[in-house]
Amino acid sequence: MQDVLAGAGAAIAAWVAVYFIGKPVVALQQQRIAALQTAERYYAVDMAATEAERDAAVQALFDVGIALRAYHRGWSTAVRMWCWARGYDLDLATQCLFGLAEGPRGKMTIPLDARRNTLAALYVALGADKHLSRETVAAIRTMITQTQAAAHTPPPASQSSTPGNANA
């Protein structure tokens, strides 16, 4: 009887491990690979490309960005722990993908070097930076830190005459 209970307990534990830990982590890894492939394929697309190429690039980059953002916002404890253990930053990866999508949209001209840096930042955010030199990774991490610090710094107070402004 004790062997039957131990066997049933092991089966339940295996089922929990597969469905609540394994499946979300495998799905995240598949989405991570899809994001890296999509970014690599479309990072150089800009306004000089055909309209069909630009539309495909924007659609693909936004699709994988939205999928990663969904993992970031609705992740399970297993996914959160996996990202922490592997050093993944899904929020930064999503921002990189959306940034790469700005090139083909044509709202502004983004130099190819800036898009390469964004692609490298995506590699760093998703732990796929083994092909980059240590110097490049360090430079990208510095750029990421500076960009995040600038995003959290409040803009300087303006001296314009707006209603309710004491300086007016």
Describe the secondary-structure layout:
Blueprint: H1 2-42, H2 51-74, H3 77-86, H4 90-105, H5 112-125, H6 134-152
Helix pairs in contact: 1-2, 1-3, 2-4, 4-5, 5-6
Summary keywords:
mainly alpha; 6 helices; 168 residues
Structure report:
- 24% of the residues are buried.
- Helix 1 (2-42) packs across helix 3 and helix 4 (90-105) packs antiparallel against helix 5.
- The protein has one domain.
- It contains six helices and no strands.
- Helix content is 74%, strand content 0%.
- The N and C termini lie far apart (85 Å).
- The mean pLDDT is 86.
- Residues 148-168 are annotated as: Disordered.
How many domains?
1
What's the Cα radius of gyration?
Answer: 22 Å
Helix content: over 70%
Q: Characterize the main sheet.
A: none
Number of strands: 0
Which class best fits the helix and strand makeup?
Answer: mainly alpha
Low-confidence stretches: none
Q: Sum up the overall morphology in one term.
A: elongated
Strand content: under 5%
Helix-strand pattern = HHHHHH
Mean pLDDT, all residues = 86
Distance between the termini: 85 Å
Tally of helical segments? 6
Summarize the structure.
With 168 residues, the protein is mainly α. Helix content is 74%, strand content 0%.
